Amino acid sequence: MQFAIVLSEENLNLQLKDLDNEQISQVEITYQPRESTDNIRSLPREFRNLLKNFIDDEQQLIWIIREKILRFDTRMQEIICSKSISYGKGKSKLCAQICVDRRAGEGYIRPALMLWLPLSPWRDNCNRVGRMAIYNRKQKDALSLSQIDEYSYLRHWPVGSRYSASDWQAQTWDLKHYVTERSKQNNESTPLEFLINLSLEK
Length: 202
What we know:
By secondary structure, the protein is of the alpha+beta class. Helices cover 21% and strands 32% of the residues. A 7-stranded antiparallel β-sheet has the order 4-5-6-7-8-9-10. A 3-stranded antiparallel β-sheet has the order 1-2-3. A hairpin with a 6-residue loop joins β2 (11-17) and β3 (24-29).
């Protein structure tokens, strides 16, 4: 059996999937809201609407990323725009952004995660930070966050160029090489976890 906690309208549901016959069962989770001492605000409506665009695995992962970022610092803000949700200490000090990538021709919608990371993996040239997109190595699931692994890659477009610009404008790094150069002791986290921690640190 495979289980997941899925957001549906205003409710949380426990979903069980039989891997042999693909049959799915679901039951609503009842819970008592309680006072929180941390800085995690309740899920805004815009965030819930954003999650509904994605498959269950992506929903869970984005939920985890959001909590990790907001717990990092009490000054962290959640900045909601029409097509994206950004995180940082104000609009001028962003560390992450979640966008919707619509690929009508390919028939799916994926979350695009942008992180502000050092522009070079090498330690002697890592003071400059830029907005980078994380891509899965499989072309058809390029923006599938739940499939990010060490063989995926990072891509940065210089200031002034468009996100959808051609590859010749972009700087690309192999994810395994980037992570290895940035940290020689990265055995306890996944590449995605490492990049999120690095973005928060920077």
